[in-house]
Amino acid sequence: MITGVAEDLDIKQRAKRRLALPPTLAGKIGLIMLAAVVLLALAGPELAPYSPRLTVGAPYAPSGGHFLLGTDVLGRDVLSRVLFGGRTVLIYAGLATILAYLAGLAFGLFAGYLRGWPDQALMRSVDVLLSFPALVFILLVSTAAGQGIIPVMVATAIIQAPAIARIVRTATLEQSVRGFVEAAVARGESAISVLRREILPNIARPLSADVGLRFTWSVLLIASVNFLGLGLQPPAADWGLMVSENWGGIGANPAAVLVPAALLGLLCVAINLLSDSLAGGRQWQ
Amino acid sequence: MAMTASPDRVLDAEALRVELASGFPVIDEVSLQLSRGEILGLVGESGSGKTTTALALLGYSRPGSVITGGQVTIAGQSVLDLPDAARRRLRGRLVSYVPQHAGQALNPSLRISAAISDVMRQHETRSRADVMAVLAAVDLPASQAFARRLPHQLSGGQQQRVTIAMALSCEPPLIVMDEPTTGLDVITQASVLEEIRRLREQIGAALVYVSHDLAVISELADRIAVMYAGRIVEEGPAATLLARPRHPYTRGLVQSIPDHRRPTRQVAMPGIAAGVEDRPAGCAFAPRCIQQTPVCSEAMPALITLTAGHQVRCVHADETPPVTLGEERDLRAAARPSPVLEVTGLRATHRSGSETVVAADDVSFELGGGECLALVGESGSGKTTIARCLAGLHRPDRGVISLHGDPLPDRARKRSLAQRRAIQYVFQNPYESLNPRRQVSDELARPAQVLRGLSASAARAEVGALLDRVRLPARAAGRYPSQLSGGERQRVAIARALAAEPEILICDEITSSLDVSVQAAILGLLADLRAELGLSVLLITHDLGVVSVTADRVLVLQQGTMRETGSITQILHTPAHPYTRQLIAAAPVLPVPVTESGDGQGKRRAISKEAAL
Amino acid sequence: MNSTDRTPAPLQGPSRRAFLHRTASAGLLLGAGAGLAACGHQTSALSTLAKPRRGGRLRIGITGAGNQESLNPSSAAYTLINLAMATAVFDTLIILNPDLSLAPGLATSWTSNRPATEWTFDLRPGVTWHDGKPFTASDVIYSLRWMAAPGNGLAGLVSNVDLAGIRQSGTSKVVVPLKTPDLLFPQTICDGYIIQDGEKNFVHPVGTGPFAFQSLIQGEHSVFLRNPHYWDHPKPYVDELIIYSLASDTARVDALISGQIDVCSQVPFTQARTGLGNGFSLLRSPGQSAYAFYMAVDKPPFDDVRVRQALRLLTDRQQLIDVALDGFGTVANDLYGRGLEFYDNGLPQHQHDVAEARSLLRAAGHGSGLTLDLQTSDIAPGVTAAAALFQQQAAAAGVTVNVTQANPSAYFNPAELYLKMPFAQTFWSGYNTLQLFYQYALMPGAAGNETHWDSNDTTSWIQAASSASSAAAAGRQWAAVQQQQWSEGGYIWWANVDNLDAASDQVGGIRPGPLLNLGLPTSLANAYFIA
Amino acid sequence: MTAAIQATAEPETPAAQDQSRPRRGRHPLLRYALRRVAAAVVILLVLSVLVFLACSVLPGNAASAILGKQASGVALAHLEREMGLNRPIAYQYWTWLTGLVHGNLGNSAAGYAAGGQISVWSQISGKLANSAILATAAFVPIVAVSLMLGVGAALRAGRWVDHLISVTTLVPAALPEFVLGALLVGLFFGSLHLLPPVSLIPPGGSPLDTPSLLVLPVLTLVGVCVGPAARMIRAGMLDALEADCVAVARLNGIAERRVVIRYALRNALAPSVQVVAMIAQYLIGGLLIVEYMFGYPGIGQQLVNAISIHDNLEVQSVSMLLAAIYVGINIVADLVVMTLVPKLRTGGA
User: Fold this and answer.
1) Which of A57, A64, A80, B535 has its CA 20 to 30 A from that of B380?
2) What is the C-alpha separation between B214 and B230, in angstroms, rounded?
3) Domain range for residue C404?
4) Whose CA is closest to B115, among B61, B155, B164?
């Protein structure tokens, strides 16, 4: 807009027009959905009528009869496995996101602040990691470290750390040229205290929106690896794994596939709505 | 030359009103008249509605605001009652627009020739030769090679000339210019102003020139209209208005603009301009007006005509005293104080992309105790990099900086506590100088804790005193920066510097992003602090007016090399180096206003052609 | 004695159904109808009546093996799809019919000397290779030596052969000397494919079989064309054979129902139970593969024989079959190898007798109750369902069984769980002679000794039986071994699972049998389109 | 798959990246391209080392992949010697790398199994072609739809059309591919009985012969990818529309249609190209899941199967192939953007 006019009108409307929904509405819906799914995932195990690993009937018994959601490929109660299956999704995706953020934040802050060779080193390693399809990377790392959920989780963290580091580095670079940061440097404050007191509080907001994005991405990735059968191994109960192991019975007992799939979808949509509102729409620029 | 109401009236705008979506009037009751070949200067500070008015003349309102009242007739053609499509066809042919930042206004992916012919084609089919003619008209090389260039391949001045060429391409009777020279350095600005003057004579078009800088307007305009809080508060022939301003705001403006020819202390205007939504009832200027009476804030005063062509919106217009100039600064060369800071053979560079730019090459100078040394030069002349080297924020390639004789390590972290206390830095942009996430009290207490080892409570106790010293109310301590105006934030930044009880204060363009009225107040504060605390000040600026108000000695820089150094009187009155002379000549100045003795006179100056870039 | 370490575990992919694989030839079916064949029944009634018709393109869907699919006959033993392709292109000296009976192949007849230490084969005249070259004795000699090469999957078949001694006698006879006497050598060698003299590269294999190789894309499909000069004229009836490699069960069944393939192998129980709709029929036959619970006899409380016997009695085998296998199985009698040579059919079938089980447990000191930990895993369809059912059956006899499910890939991995579980389940197939099974399962330190069996008597009986030079002597030894296992063994063999395939009613000539799915190895040559 | 796209590559035009801008001189574009290709080669080399190490750590190896789990120890050792797996790691890496560079990836597992020579390339080229068909079949509608939605939403920013587009694309965009796939199959096959869940490609035929084979995979990819892509194109377009030069063009009386096309769209091209590149890169990952889910015989399913049976010879080669395509897309996108942004094309003043 004509810069002069902006001064006259003294209005800051620029970000608002970018949103799908007004931030508060998106935030509310997202929060409610997220709370529901998390509650189901955490409280679920206590409510499960059967043990998730026990065969209790014939395979793919249709839903509605003795079993509310029918049985799965091995004749286990789908409802119990759905109630148990949420926890692994939240725990492992959560840990992966936290791990990615710890690494990404540390790397990004120091590269952005120190500039010079650490910055170059980070950028080069980011180029390498980002030039590899994420899912292929995780499959490789997880199979190299022996199939199982821990390597998958660590690999998911590793593949996301560079992208986070890059965002943090850019934000740190932007902040470090601002007056109050240079004043602190001129005062001779240590790098740590400058980062902690001056820079981190000011980049918290853009990062908060990104956390939602990362968590969704972790859920997607880990669920996909489980779906391919290369993450969590049977007989574990996990929504992603359930979709793939019952894929054959989609004709006989669709609930065995569609219910875990829908819950995963609900979780992802909820987080997206939430991070959408947190970013006040800037995230979509 | 005052223009009487001649038959070929070009512009006749009546009671223009533009409202925000929320209904608040951005501008109201704006009436302007303009005849052929006349230049109207529209002056006002940020938030006064000058640009909105300019755009309203083209029948354009920015999204989020709407033109709700008034009439605009250009060359007999009424604009506002036309539907959008018809209104669009008028623009460019009947009235054209020159934007403020030419760099952003030109389409980056269109060659100049294409951009100009785009405007032309809208109205009649014009050939390539006409494009060349228009380029020549604005003193740009009329060659095929030049015409094929892209905007980023032109200098700032050239870009601005292209936008002017686009405005002229259909020879409209009225051209609206919105601060076309603000982004340019003073020498280029002078040449562009010269260009505009020449065009006015040659094509006789009427010009509305919008600016926040009264000095620039005084160089060009035949008549001036001053806007404050969305209304015209005074309008009249340039000479009479500048010599004897009748509205207190205009008088305050004239007083706060420094004139480098007469180094004086400034008379600051109190208070700040209110935002659109919180303008007071009655006269908007009342809260800041020295001759304010209860009647002022009862109703909005009407625009009354004093003499033919001179109107003012103030009930006490006739009581407005003439302009009182600050008293001359006694610049008799006091004995040179012993040097606190010496810089010898400083060379500093910085990398921008692949090229390394030499910011300072073999710069040496001294700063005496209690003395104010001004580093003057255009943007990119290296003055800021030198200052950052002094503060330990930039590592110089060569050269020694010594404080009280002993050399300073290049990095702030490596300097002793005392050395870090001695030099404090105040940054240019007030909106970036304070940490938005922390209260003013925290920001002010921090330096004492770090540099003077005070406990948190002891440091916090000093905050009140610091705020007083920079003339801010104590309640500001609990505020966040976002709740303060630009001027208030800069005062807090200065207070933070003082918290360390420094010997040297480096002020890097601290007033350049503030309105002129607020600038005067800050410079006044700086002068008081020097008197009270005996501070040495290194002032970095490109504005000779600011130099004349505060500096004792001056160092002129061009592209990182020292051109000239000397006392304020030597530099301003008897400049030795041609570059310094060029700078002084190009700096716009107000005509000397009528003081009690009433002997002021308007004057014009021509600037030599070759100076233009 | 026999070096190939064949673990009983079938190939276990994430979603692939267990393939029943076999590594040695089936036993000679002594006497007609020895238990197995009698109770098998043909469901595709049309196949025997209509006259075979020439032509057509036969499309078969078999469980895929991805990168392991190959025409190299040495790897035929590892996956059903490799075996099917090998039977299409190559022939064997002796053909093992689906019902475990032997028939002349490239050898018209075969005789052995008195002590069964030397076997002589008469070769079939007038046989040609796909590239037109004549089939001679040198091909047979080369093939036998090729099988013995290290790394060859068929090495186990000729491990007892004195390779240097193999010689041609006359134009059409080959004499094969053995190191130790082996009455059942024909049942072993009938699995050895005969390749052309000097053939090493099987990218474009040349065989004497019913079909000539045309193309193979791993994981997708392989194509074979009819061999007009096949010795068993007028077979094969179809002009072209396509084998689709389809990993998931449902994909195969859907492909059959949607008419994209004509024959589908290894139909899951659920589809078999719900039926395939009209126009398709199930090819079902009782199978040789067997399911069992096993107890480590050296670990309490299973070291007490009375506990083992009690558990056998409280197992309701028919209910396990009806629920866990949807009825697709036949009750077993705690012995492996039903239908094999020297299998003791005379031992009475263990019945479901809860009262006797309780008294045995009381005698063993567990009158007040017994708690056991059973580790199960989804190693084959119905196994985990059987575990859950066994838990309920044991509860009826006062025995509480805690069932935990383990990861299938760890269940048969000696590094992880295999041979370390005191009470678990297993699933064996493809052992055609008792000696192969018992050497592998009961000899101390053997790779498959799940019950940790270590008894000198058993070891000596097994060794004597394996190298007996007369059928009578072998019979007596095997009877002793089986009598001991039947009464005191650590296994509860509760069912032989059926071979389940399906075909469109337009296809005839496929006779299912206990040996393998799809009535291999002869069905490809016999198959034809009815109308 | 919102996260998928934005997380993998930040929408930065080359000018914003901190590599030094190309020095002025003759054709800076060529120089920039050469530098990017050189950087890419280095990246791929580093990746090849990482991939090889990851694969050589795999518990099984190519030999066990060929013979399967129940192969005898003797057979395994013999094949390992034949395949040179007992040679030092560095030697194996070098032979594999030189093979990769010359295009012959050496003998495939199938080749060793058959005792002859079947090049890995012949094994995967067919699958690669199938994947290329599926990728193009998905890429074209995704780009078309997201461009339409993105630009349309931007032009009517704030109005109901804009909100409608954003909301409808939000839900599928957030789902993992296999979830959306499952729901689609549930809908099409489960209740509507429209599409067979599996379609076989007859020998010699191509997926195009049986288009029904492509419908569900393409629908899944489009559903998941259009949301984020449209949103980013919309953001790019909004920035262009709000630029000063558009307002000034309107003030100079230029017709609205011409302003939108020549002043807004023209400058929104560069960021849109970045988005299109991201769509292509996303597809590589997306194909993996969709091919496995629908049993589509593409390179993705081949890789997953190879990984699950630890055939690391093929895993290495396919991974490097995908990485090379991934990096290639990056370079092409940057070059196209270079030509679109005048400042970069002329090396800048």
Assistant:
1) B535
2) 17
3) 290-497
4) B164
Residue numbers in B near A201 (CB within 8 A): 435, 437-438
Mutation target among A34, A131, A271 for the D interface, most CBs of D within 10 A:
A131
Q: What CATH number corresponds to the domain at position C187?
A: 3.90.76.10
From the CA of B24, how many Å to the nearest CA of chain A? 10
- Does C18 contact A at CB distance below 8 Å? no
Residue A111 within any structural domain of the chain: yes
In this complex, whether A and B touch, counting 3 or more CB pairs under 8 angstroms, is yes
From C21's Cα to the closest Cα of chain D, the distance in A is 11
Question: What confidence tier does C278 reach under pLDDT thresholds 50, 70, 90?
Answer: confident
**Shortest Cα distance, chain B CAs vs residue A241, angstroms:** 45
Here the CATH number for the domain that contains residue A264 is 1.10.3720.10
* Beta-carbon contacts below 8 Å between A and B: 108
The distance of A136 to chain D (nearest Cα, Å) reads 7
> CA-to-CA distance for B150 and B141, rounded, in angstroms?
14
With beta carbons under 8 A apart, name residues in chain C contacting D77. Answer: 150-151
| Statement: residue B129 has pLDDT above 90 | no
pLDDT in tens, B172-210: 889 999 888 877 888 888 888 888 888 888 888 889 999
Quick one: C374 and C485 in the same domain? yes
Q: Is residue A115 part of a domain?
A: yes
Please give the tally of structural domains in chain A: 1
Q: Does B103 touch chain A (CB under 8 A)?
A: no
> What whole-number distance in Å separates Cα of residue C384 and Cα of residue C387?
5
* pLDDT 10s digits, B522-565: 888 888 888 888 889 999 988 888 888 888 889 998 888 888 98
Quote the number of domains for chain C: 3
Output the pLDDT for position C388: 83
Domain membership of residue C36 (yes or no) is no
Q: Which residues of A touch B451 (CB under 8 A)?
A: 187-188
Q: What is the span of the domain harbouring residue A168?
A: 44-278
Which of C265, C236, C256 shows the shortest CA–CA distance to C83?
A: C265
**C249 lies in the same domain as C184:** no
C255 lies within 8 A of chain A by CB:
no
Verify whether the Cβ–Cβ distance B108 to D256 is below 8 Å.
no
CB pairs < 8 Å spanning B and D: 88
Q: Is C418 inside any structural domain?
A: yes
CATH of the domain at C446: 3.10.105.10
The verdict on C214 and C348 lying in the same domain is: no
Asked whether residue A164 is assigned to any structural domain, the reply reads: yes
Contact A2 B62 (CB under 8 A): yes
pLDDT given for residue B594 in this prediction: 65
What domains can you pick out in chain B, each with its CATH number?
A: 53-200 (3.40.50.300), 361-584 (3.40.50.300)
Q: Quick one: closest CA in D to B105, which residue?
A: D245
Q: Which positions in chain D touch C12 (Cβ < 8 Å)?
A: 69
Q: Which of B128-137, C84-93, D284-293, D317-326 has the highest mean pLDDT?
A: C84-93
Per-residue 3-state assignment (H helix, E strand, C coil) for chain D: CHHHHHHHCCCCCCCCCCCCCCCCCCCHHHHHHHHHHHHHHHHHHHHHHHHHHHHHCCCCCHHHHHHCCCCCHHHHHHHHHHHCCCCCHHHHHHHHHHHHHHCCCCECHHHHHCCCCCEHHHHHHHHHHHHHHHHHHHHHHHHHHHHHHHHHHHHCCCCHHHHHHHHHHHHHHHCCHHHHHHHHHHHHHHHCCCCCCCCCCCCCCCHHHCCHHHHHHHHHHHHHHHHHHHHHHHHHHHHHHCCHHHHHHHHCCCCHHHHHHHHHHHHHHHHHHHHHHHHHHHHHHHHHHHHHHHCCCCHHHHHHHHHHCCCHHHHHHHHHHHHHHHHHHHHHHHHHHHHHCHHHHCCCC
